[in-house]
Each structure stands twice: as structure tokens, then as C-alpha cells.
Design brief:
The protein is of the alpha/beta class. It has two domains: 217 residues, Glycogen Phosphorylase B (Rossmann fold); 182 residues, 3-Layer(aba) Sandwich (Rossmann fold), CATH 3.40.50.2000. It contains 17 helices and 13 strands. A seven-stranded parallel beta sheet has the order 3-2-1-4-5-6-7, sandwiched between helices. Strand 11, helix 13 and strand 12 form a beta-alpha-beta unit. The protein starts with a strand and ends with a helix. 48% of the residues are buried.
């Protein structure tokens, strides 16, 4: 079957959206489908074009990836990001309209909602079946985070959301909460499937002590202190970098007990590091590929995941790095609403401490509590077992193969 992946994020970017699409591509290629991908030139999350992305690219796996030029913003303001999304909307739309490749199914991912809109328009024009992968439900998330306040804009985006949902033959979400959200909006539950993000348990895994020592030496991480790690995006969104910074500053009297390690990039990274550097022993390792990230994570002691609270739960909101940390055998400190789906998952795992969102004191107390523990490895292994049983990404990605097969049967019947 000929399948087009229509994504705003893809290899070699290491963000959650990119990695999710990569696993989907791998799963469908194993079934001997003809896969092509269109995506912007890699630039996330640093907003700097990857100059050496062709060198990083494994030709045998990604030779059918078409990178399109877009506007890359220097700063992540709402306006500049909007222009960037619009530029990919336009370039991808024109590229696909006049492209000779004639897919039977188009698979697209959102956010950004503009990418899914372009894919929906293509599918309407060319009468193709569309599988919509919703990682976060917009505009709901944007409204809850205060990013969207203009009523006419919100009204327009809700119309766009409805058009996209109505254009999709099948919809995939990352959590049961997202499915419930869509059902309340009138979407048939029969058209919705849940494919959890999870973690690649072959890539993210605990390491032997001698391997941990080697990695720490290679990256300048001390052997005699606890390593607290934050990895991922430093852009404005669900990650609460203000709470993270305030919580670490509150731990100034414990600064000799640990080193804070940051991995990733984004518009607010320098602000955070400048804010905490007088009070915290910290180390910035830049942006790493997934194999390197997995090793750094496994060589750490505690994973910090500060998430913003939402007044009205919009769905699942399950951070990928929670599963990846557990898979690597690392306990997690997570801030989340106590009645949220990720809070229920977290409590089931028994692999860390859940703290109150938007509360630096609560997050700081969580860190202090884990710093005192001598059984961090045992806690981390509980998380590892939990992910192996429930959130193995390789198994989850295979679910898409079944969805495509059923869709194909409907197409050819």
C-alpha cells in the first residue's frame, strides 16, 4: 500500500512528535508498504536549521523523506510560530498537490493544527483516506495554557478542528482521556483508537554500574553526586520551566548533594540556566540524538518533569519522557493534576513522587524527598517493569498496522 506521512516533526529531530512518527514509519515499512514522508527541514527545538542533517540521516531508512523549506523563527513568540506553521502549511500544500506520488492513505499528526489542516485539504481534494494522529487536542490545550485568548481566533480554530475531525477516516490519540474528549465533541468512538506513546524498552534501559561510570566520565558528570536531569523542550508549553527553576533555587542548601543536568534546547533554555546557575551546580549537554539521550538518562538518578496544571482537563496529556525515564530505570518527579490520567498512571507505577502543579514548593519538597532515599534503583526498576508490561513503544506502534489493514479493507471492498 502507498502511504504518505504528513508531519511537521520528523527525523533527525528528537522531540516527542518526531519520534512517534518514526516508530509509525518503521512499523508500517515492516509490512512492506511504500512509505513517503514530507516534513520541514529539521530545526526543532532550537529553531536553527540542522546543517548536517544529511550526514545524520540513515539513507536506507529515510531515503523517501522529502524536506521542505519553511520559515524558521528565531524566537518562539506566538506570532513567529504562527508564521512558521503557515509557511509549512503553504509549502506542503503546493508540493503535495502537484506531486506525482499518489498515496492510498495519508497519515498526519497534530499539533500543529495547521499541518493536519493541510493534510485534510489534500485528502478532500484528492479523495484520499486520512488517519489523524492527535498528540494534543487543539485548540483546547492552547486555551487552557492561556496562549489563545482572542475569541474570533478561538472560534476559527474550533471550526478548523471540526473540519479536520470530519475529514479523518480514523483518529488515533495518545491517551484514553483524549478519546473521551473527542467523544464529547460528537466523534464516533468506533473511529478512535488509542496508541500510547510509551518508550522503546530496547533503547531506553538501565545500565550496569561500570557503564554508568564510563558515561558520567565522558560527559563530565560527577560520580559522587546525585544527577537530577531535565530533558526535552525548553520552549513555552506544558513544561513548567518557571516552577523548575524556582524549585531548584529553593534547594540551594542542598547544592553539594547533586548536579542538575539539562539536555535539549528551546527559546527559554538560556533564561532558565542563567536563573539557576548562582544557586545550583548545573551542566548543559546540548541536544542529543536518541541513543545518546538514552545513555545519559540511564546514568542519572532522578528525572524532573514539571508540568503545568490545567483548570479543565483537556485529555491525556501524558509526557513521553515519563515513560522513557522509567524504561531507563530512573525514578520520576512529576507535577500533574491529581485527577488526571497521567496521575493515575503514575500512581500505578509506584516509581516516583507526584507533586502539585504550579507549585515550586511542592516540586522542591519532592526533590528533597528523593534525594534522601537510598533505594532509587529499586524505585526505578519498578517503573521499568511497569513500562515493559504496559507501555512498550514497539508494541504500541504495531497497532497502527492493524488500523491501516482494516482501513485498507474498507477501501478496496
Amino acid at each position: 500500500m502507498k502511504i504518505l506521512f504528513y508531519s511537521h516533526f520528523f527525523f533527525p529531530e528528537a522531540g516527542a512528535g518526531s519520534i512517534r512518527m518514526q516508530y509509525f514509519v518503521f512499523a508500517l515499512r515492516k509490512s512492506e508498504n511504500e512509505i513517503k514522508v514530507i516534513t520541514p527541514y529539521p530545526n526543532y527545538p532550537s529553531s536553527k536549521a540542522y546543517q548536517d542533517y544529511k550526514k545524520k540521516q540513515n539513507i536506507s531508512e529515510f531515503e523517501e523523506t522529502h524536506y521542505l523549506y519553511i520559515y524558521v523563527p528565531k524566537k518562539h513568540s506566538i506570532l513567529s510560530r504562527g508564521f512558521s506553521y503557515l509557511s509549512y502549511f503553504m509549502s506542503s500544500l503546493f508540493f503535495t498537490l502537484f506531486w506525482s506520488f499518489n498515496p492510498e492513505i495519508v497519515i498526519t499528526s497534530s499539533p500543529p493544527i495547521s499541518t493536519a489542516l493541510a493534510a485534510a485539504l489534500i485528502c478532500r481534494i484528492k479523495r484520499k483516506k486520512m488517519i489523524l494522529d492527535l498528540r494534543d487536542i487543539w485548540p483546547d490545550i492552547g486555551i487552557q495554557l492561556g496562549l489563545l485568548t482572542n475569541k474570533p481566533v478561538i472560534k476559527l480554530l474550533k471550526w478548523v478542528e471540526k473540519f479536520i475531525l470530519n475529514s479523518a477516516t480514523s483518529i488515533i490519540v495518545t491517551a484514553n482521556g483524549d478519546k473521551d474528549n473527542l467523544i464529547k465533541k460528537g466523534v464516533s468512538q468506533d473511529s478512535i483508537s488509542v496508541i500510547f506513546n510509551g518508550a522503546d524498552t530496547d533503547l531506553f534501559k538501565p545500565l550496569e554500574s561500570f557503564e554508568v561510570k564510563k558515561i558520567r566520565k565522558n560527559y563530565g558528570m560527577p560520580l559522587d553526586k546525585k544527577i537530577l536531569i531535565y530533558f526535552g523542550s525548553f520552549n513555552y508549553g506544558m513544561n513548567d520551566l518557571i516552577v523548575l527553576g524556582d524549585a531548584l533555587i529553593k534547594l540551594e542548601e542542598h547544592k553539594d548533594e547533586y548536579v542538575f543536568v539539562a539536555v535539549g534546547d528551546g527559546n527559554n533554555r538560556e533564561t532558565l540556566m542563567s536563573k539557576i546557575s548562582p544557586y545550583v551546580n548545573c551542566l548543559y549537554l546540548g541536544t542529543l540524538d536518541s541513543p545518546s539521550m538514552a545513555k545519559i538518562l540511564a546514568a542519572s538518578d532522578i528525572s524532573l518533569i514539571p508540568r503545568k496544571g490545567l483548570k479543565h482537563d483537556t485529555g491525556g496529556n501524558t509526557p513521553v519522557k515519563c515513560f522513557e525515564s522509567w524504561a531507563a530505570g530512573v525514578p520520576v518527579i512529576l507535577s500533574a493534576n491529581p485527577d488526571s490520567e497521567i496521575a493515575n498512571i503514575f500512581n500505578e507505577s509506584e516509581a516516583g513522587i507526584l507533586t502539585e502543579p504550579d507549585n515550586a514548593d511542592s516540586f522542591s519538597m519532592g526533590i528533597q524527598s528523593l534525594l534522601k532515599r537510598n533505594d532509587l534503583k529499586e524505585i526505578g526498576f519498578s517503573g521499568r517493569k511497569y513500562v515493559e508490561m504496559n507501555y512498550n513503544r514497539n508494541i504500541e506502534a504495531k497497532k497502527l498496522d492493524n488500523i491501516v489493514a482494516k482501513l485498507y479493507n474498507r477501501v478496496v471492498s
